[in-house]
Each structure stands twice: as structure tokens, then as C-alpha cells.
Amino acid sequence: MKFTASQIAGILEGDVVGNPDIEVSKLAKIEEGSDGTLTFLANPKYTQFIYETKASITIVNKDFEPEAKITTTLIKVDDAYKAFSKLLEYYNQVKMNKSGIEQPTFISETAKYGDNLYLGAFSYLGDNVSIGNNVKIFPGCYIGDNVTIGDNVVLFSGAKIYSETVIGSHCIINSGVIIGADGFGFAPNEKGEYNKVPQTGNVILEDYVDVGAATTIDRATLGSTVIRRGVKLDNQIQIAHNVEIGKNTVIAAQTGIAGSTKIGENCQIGGQVGIVGHITIGNNVKVQAQSGITRNVKDNEVLQGSPALTYGDYNKSYVHFKNLPKIVKGLNEIEKKLNDSN
């Protein structure tokens, strides 16, 4: 897709200084700009690059006045950073503006879908699937029986949505995501072997949930695994059966949450955090990366370490952790002196 400077200025309500007909088809950092690219200048630290950049168009603040010769066409706006963000959003909407049903695909006779569906090739819609309006399902997706999907949802290539799952509106499901696989439920028998416990529940995602690539959310044993409105999940997260995550909580990559744990609202959980099962974590909790949560957590706690301590206690304790070899050496010397005096 190509856009002229005048078209971009129209979208951003900006003014063109330079060639209004120059075209761009790519985005670039200002220091890496090349012919046919669009960039922006918002941070004064990067001002030097505007005199060197080979980008065809640069978005700048209205008060910017060059102090030397430039070759890039300028688009002047009130706030260059916000304008560039707006342009990215617009570009993404254009790029995602797909519709129609590609072939080959499989659509059950009992499946229903709304207006402006995009269904990519090699996708599968099972029995009694219900899909809302403006849904984009990219190639190679699997939608199992009795799945419900709301409006304005995007499923990227290779997402797998198992039966009975409910997905709200305005959700984004990235490639490799698996929602609704069986929870890890096994019971030992008298022979010491493990029998599988049937997982008969489902998964519910409320509105505005983002799920990162290769994240897995297991169905409940009974009832539902629930991801509340506005939750944002990074890549490669494991959420076990019957977990509940409160609204607007964000979780970074490689975190694992064991079964039946409840996490509150507005929590921030760092990468590679491990959370045991059957505990409750309150609202507004912050967990530093690589922490291990083994107990119930009250509202507003900030935790670090494994097993996790409050953030303040961890930092105080760390002073002693790193000095342990020196402390042990000192104790050994004291013990030796005491033994020699006896």
C-alpha cells in the first residue's frame, strides 16, 4: 500500500512542507529511514537525524523549524508521537480489512456467522458455532463445536479454539494460541497408574481480551476457566483449569498459573512467574519477574523472589543473601577460635 504526503496529512489533520505528492509504502526509525519510508520526530534527542535521514516523509511537531538543509518532506502536526500512533492504528485497520471466505475451508451446516466475516483458507468451523460481525479468522484456524465468538474479534493463523469456548467482543487471539484444551487432571489408582479425570467445563473470555502467541488456556474440570474483561496476556503463558483472572490484569511471557487460582483486578505479573494452585491473589498486586507465588496475596502487595516476599523484605534480605559466603566464613573463623581456646 502506498500513501502520498497529502493523504497522510489529511488523515492526521497536518500541514505538508515539501512535496505533497511524494509516496511512502513502509515505516522506519528516523535514523534508519530510506527512500519510500515514513518516519517521525518526537524526541529532541533524535533531532540530529532529521538532517541525515533518507526517509521520504517525516512527521514533526508544528513548532519544529529546521536549522540546516533537509531532504525529507515534513508533515507538521500538534503532537508528532500521537499522530504517528494514530497513523499506525489506521495502517493496521487498512491491512486487516479483509473479508470473504477463502477456499478450501470447512463450515458446518449448523454454524452461523455475522456480516463482514473473513475466513482464511484451511480454516474449520464446527457444529453450532456462532460468530458475530466483523470477525477476522486467518488461515489455518480451528473453531470447535458450540463455540461462540462476539463482534470485532481477530484470530490469527493457527489459533485453535476447542469446543464450548465463549469469546467476547473486541478480542485478539494470536497465532498458536490454544483455548479450551483439557486441564491437567489425573487421579492415581491402586496400581500406581494415573487415570484421566474428564474435563467437562469450558473457557470464557470476556470483551477486550488479548492473548499472545502460543499461550494456552485450559478448560475447567467443572464450570469455567474465566478471563475477565480487558485482560492482556503475553506470549507463551500457561493458564490451568478453573483459573479466574480479574479485569484489566496484565501478565508477561512464560508465566504459569496452576489450577483453581483466582487472580484479582488490575494486577501486573512479570515474566516467568510461577503461581501455585488453589490460592487467591488480590487486586492491584504487582509481582516481579521470576517470582514464585505459594500463598494467598492481599490487595496492593508488591512481591519478588521465590518463594516470593514483599518487595521491601526481599530487597532487605538480598543484602544478606549476597554476603552469605562472607558471613559463613566469619562464623567458621569464630567457631575455630572457640574450639582452639578450649
Automatic annotation (TrEMBL):
GN (gene name): lpxD
Active site: 241 (proton acceptor)
Organism of this sequence: Pontimicrobium aquaticum
Signal peptide, first to last residue: none
GO molecular function: N-acyltransferase activity; UDP-3-O-[(3R)-3-hydroxyacyl]-glucosamine N-acyltransferase activity
GO (cellular component) term, any one: membrane
Subunit organization: Homotrimer.
Xref: SUPFAM superfamilies: Trimeric LpxA-like enzymes (SSF51161)
HAMAP family tied to this protein: LpxD
Record's catalysed reaction(s): a UDP-3-O-[(3R)-3-hydroxyacyl]-alpha-D-glucosamine + a (3R)-hydroxyacyl-[ACP] = a UDP-2-N,3-O-bis[(3R)-3-hydroxyacyl]-alpha-D-glucosamine + holo-[ACP] + H(+)
Record keywords, A-Z: Acyltransferase, Lipid A biosynthesis, Lipid biosynthesis, Lipid metabolism, Repeat, Transferase
Protein name per its UniProtKB record: UDP-3-O-acylglucosamine N-acyltransferase
Pathway(s) of this molecule: Bacterial outer membrane biogenesis; LPS lipid A biosynthesis
